[in-house]
Task: inverse folding
């Protein structure tokens, strides 16, 4: 077994001894400091706290202010102590704590010389908590409310201008968040949410930049929402899209997308007509006749497509389809009706078939319609 070499441990022992002496000195110093503070009067402690505060040593000032608050309860001095305590918290970046105490100070000492600044600092504390636009904006809304509350209570204060500047900055942040949310809805094809979000932007931020582009995006959102809707909802939603697209043209006749609005107005009108035709098959047989007649009348009156070959072609396709459905519907009714009603249905069917063949004689369904007409004529001749 080797011999213990004390010399090799001497540096370590020296280091440990030195640390012990330093710790002993600090402990003794703290004890003496604590004893020294306990011997001081409240006035001396307040003077020391204010000295620390003035030097920016807020972590030293705060416990002294906390100790003095109950001592000065019920005196005029308490408002001053409470104010600097809250201000020290604010300077230490404890904005949540500071905001709470500034508001409490105002509520408890609303007639003191520190009341106005306390209410202002309450708003400033929320302002300090307001995060970047992409995060939860609850502190931003609270800051807006706090600044407005200050302006309402102190309308002639020199701080009102700063409050209004702060309000503008906070609203810019909320506007950015709302705009980004609307754009995200649009990019992810949640067009109903996008339309609502864009329109809420106009209501909440009437001075928003480039409103014409946002009105256009709102209108397009309504169109795309209608386009992706169920058949029974499409007609009404296309009509809303038409109104929104026309609104863009009315408000912004120089908008670069004015002609695009025209294009989608035509598409929406076609959508309304297409929906009316598509809805025919969803109805019971005995309700199809008035539905198909209404669809055909709407298509025949759609003169707004004249001169536009593309849309006129689509209108004709819809009219052919509706007319063919009309023939089919009358044929089914003629076959299923009571014997005393069959003559009337076949007579109507001949007239409807003639209309179809006169208008769409070259269509793929023309031969079938001709056979149906011939069948009805034969029935009438035998009747």
Result:
């Amino acid at each position: 077994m080797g011999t213990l070499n004390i010399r090799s441990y001497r540096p370590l022992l020296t280091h440990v001894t030195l640390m012990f002496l330093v710790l002993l000195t600090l402990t003794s110093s703290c004890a003496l400091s604590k004893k020294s503070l306990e011997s001081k009067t409240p006035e001396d402690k307040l003077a020391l706290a204010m000295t620390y505060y003035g030097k920016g040593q807020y972590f030293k000032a705060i416990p002294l202010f906390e100790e003095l608050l109950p001592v000065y309860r019920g005196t005029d001095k308490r408002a001053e102590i409470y104010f600097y305590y809250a201000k020290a918290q604010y300077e230490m970046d404890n904005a949540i704590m500071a905001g709470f105490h500034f508001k409490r100070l105002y509520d408890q000492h609303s007639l003191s010389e520190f009341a106005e600044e306390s209410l202002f600092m309450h708003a400033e504390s929320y302002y300090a908590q307001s995060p970047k636009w992409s995060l939860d904006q609850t502190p931003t809304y609270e800051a807006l409310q706090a600044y407005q509350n200050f302006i309402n209570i102190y309308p002639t204060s020199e701080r009102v201008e700063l409050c209004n500047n702060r309000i503008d900055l906070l609203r810019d942040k909320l506007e950015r968040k709302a705009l980004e949310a609307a754009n995200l809805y649009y990019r992810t094809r949640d067009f109903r949410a996008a339309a609502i979000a864009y329109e809420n932007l106009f209501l909440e931020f009437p001075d928003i930049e480039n409103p014409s582009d946002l009105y256009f995006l709102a209108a397009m959102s309504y169109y795309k929402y209608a386009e992706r809707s169920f058949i029974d909802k499409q007609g009404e939603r296309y009509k809303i899209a038409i109104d929104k697209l026309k609104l863009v043209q009315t408000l912004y006749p120089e908008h670069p997308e004015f002609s695009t609005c025209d294009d989608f107005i035509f598409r929406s009108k076609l959508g309304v007509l297409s929906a009316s035709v598509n809805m025919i098959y969803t109805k019971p047989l005995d309700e199809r006749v008035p539905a198909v007649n209404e669809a055909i009348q709407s298509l025949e009156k759609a003169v707004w497509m004249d001169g536009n070959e593309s849309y006129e072609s689509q209108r004709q396709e819809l009219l052919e389809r509706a007319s063919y459905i009309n023939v089919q519907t009358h044929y089914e009714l003629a076959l299923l009706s009571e014997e005393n009603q069959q003559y009337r249905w076949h007579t109507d069917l001949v007239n409807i078939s003639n209309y179809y063949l006169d208008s769409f004689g070259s269509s793929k369904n023309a031969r079938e319609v001709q056979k149906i007409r011939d069948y009805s004529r034969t029935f009438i001749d035998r009747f």
Observations:
- Residues 1-33 have pLDDT under 50 and may be disordered.
